[in-house]
Amino acid sequence: MQHMGFYGFHGVLDEERSIGQKFFVDVELTLDLSGAGGSDDVAKTVSYAEVYDDVKYFAESARYNLIEALGENIAQRILAKYDLVSEVLVRVKKPEAPVRGIFEFFGVEIRRAR
Hints:
36% helix, 4-stranded antiparallel β-sheet, 114 residues, EC 4.1.2.25, alpha+beta
């Protein structure tokens, strides 16, 4: 799941928390897909629509000072909710960070496993 865009209110500065800004999130899941692939049974995989909704909740409804906390909460939620997932990688990208300079984004990468 790549480059999911959200508008959130995360940041240390008051302006970030009141005006908000765009965030982009990538999620990579590690799980055994042989059962789903062999049977064509959706019950043997993880619904990317459900994962998207989980990410959207944390990105748009919750508020964090740090993008590290946003990524950590997403990773922990995925591991807690989806038993088939053995490892998750969450990238949070902040393209409008309040830094003077030219950059594509600032971001963090959170990798968690069972």
